[in-house]
Specification:
There is one protein chain. The chain is α/β, with parallel strands linked by helices. The chain folds into 2 domains: about 220 residues, Cytidine Deaminase, domain 2 (3-Layer(aba) Sandwich), CATH 3.40.140.10; about 100 residues. It is about 50% helix and about 15% strand. Helix 3 links the parallel strand 7 and strand 8. Helix 6 packs antiparallel against helix 7. It is rod-shaped. The protein starts with a strand and ends in an 8-residue tail after the last helix.
Length: about 350
């Protein structure tokens, strides 16, 4: 993710021929309350797979940790399933509101820290927890703009319910999870409430579309009790309504799918029955054909046997006539008689009379 304005720096002069080794970056621990992430999930989850980005405001506690307490999600200039961008003016607006809160609520003691823009939060819906190449560049640009190198990155996957707190751009796959709550005294709490109220004034002047969601974190109930809208509850109810609609659509689709499955099942059964009937019919026909072939084969064998026996009888008769008759005409008459008998047998076999 990225944002326009404020984080683009121009280099002056010629670039050195060789770059000095990058000094090891100082890394500070981060504290991100679970409420901050839950509110971010409630707002961004209904937007499905579209990425969204925002800013986090916090302070440095007595242990030197970067504490993220509240934040905002401004209007997105660009939002896709893999990229989001908002106007860089919101960095200046948040910084000015933090300065206002610091001056309006006097600390009265050195141990009351000042509020500041201390990080940014964005979503990876369905993509998992990591810092992309653009995320790393954005992280480094914002670290370079700070005086003390303090900045936190929080990545939320609202579709999977996961979150990751990154404390350095040098480790894009190393993160911890948001947990617990932020501890603050009355004066520090008053500063945060003053900041939130200031952002409500900004929203009133620029419109709800320009600043659709204010992350109140652990101070949500105090902020709402001051007469402000409960962004978390509104987003939560919208999310429930959307879930109900999606559930209803899925149930209707499931019913249609079930009817289609039943219809397909009926067609499969009908097809199976047709195939079985065809198989039975084919088997029956094969049996009839085989029976007819067997009958024809037996009839043909009997005819051949009868024909052979007849030939043998006729030949014997002709030989006997030739042996007993002094004239050759009798032999010719015997041959003609044999031919007539052969014709009868050929007709019995279904054959045409042979040409003489």
């Amino acid at each position: 993710m990225s944002w326009l304005g404020g984080n683009k720096r121009k280099t002056r002069g010629k670039r050195a021929a060789s770059l000095a080794p990058k000094p090891k970056r100082k890394v500070s621990e981060a504290v991100v309350p679970l409420s901050l992430v839950e509110q971010a999930e409630a707002f961004t989850a209904p937007r499905g797979h579209m990425e969204m980005g925002g800013l986090m405001i916090g302070h440095v506690d007595e242990q030197g940790r970067n504490v993220c307490a509240v934040g905002i999600f401004p209007e997105q200039i660009q939002d896709t399933p893999s990229y989001c961008e908002f106007d860089g003016k919101w960095m200046a607006i948040c910084a000015a509101a933090a300065d206002y809160a610091n001056t309006q609520i006097e600390g009265g003691a050195e141990d009351t820290p000042n509020l500041r823009v201390i990080g940014w939060i964005h979503t990876h819906p369905g993509l998992g927890l990591f810092l992309s190449g653009i995320d790393i560049k954005t992280y480094e640009d914002n670290l370079n703009m700070t005086m003390d190198g303090r900045f936190v990155a929080v990545v939320v996957d609202p579709l999977e319910g996961d979150n990751g707190v990154f404390v350095s751009p040098d480790e894009p796959h190393s993160y911890s999870s948001a947990s617990g709550a932020v501890s603050m005294d009355d004066k520090l709490k008053a500063r945060y409430l003053a900041f939130l109220q200031r952002m409500e004034e900004v929203r009133e002047s620029q419109g709800k579309d320009a600043l659709p969601f204010i992350l109140c974190g652990d101070l949500r109930m105090e902020h709402v009790s001051n007469g402000n809208a409960d962004d978390f509850l509104e987003s939560y109810l919208k999310s429930i309504h959307k879930i109900r609609k999606e559930l209803k659509i899925r149930m209707e689709n499931s019913k249609r799918d079930a009817l289609r499955l039943d219809e397909l099942g009926g067609r499969v059964v009908q097809t199976d029955n047709s195939v079985r009937a065809l198989q039975d019919e084919t088997l029956s026909r094969n049996r009839k054909i085989n029976a007819r072939l067997d009958k024809m084969e037996r009839k043909f064998a009997d005819s051949i046997k009868s024909l052979t026996e007849m030939f043998e009888a006729k030949i014997s008769e002709m030989e006997e006539r030739l042996g007993n008759s002094p004239e050759g005409n009798d032999a010719e008459d015997g041959v003609a008689s044999a031919k007539i008998d052969l014709t009868v047998h050929f007709k019995a076999l279904g054959c045409s009379e042979a040409e003489g």
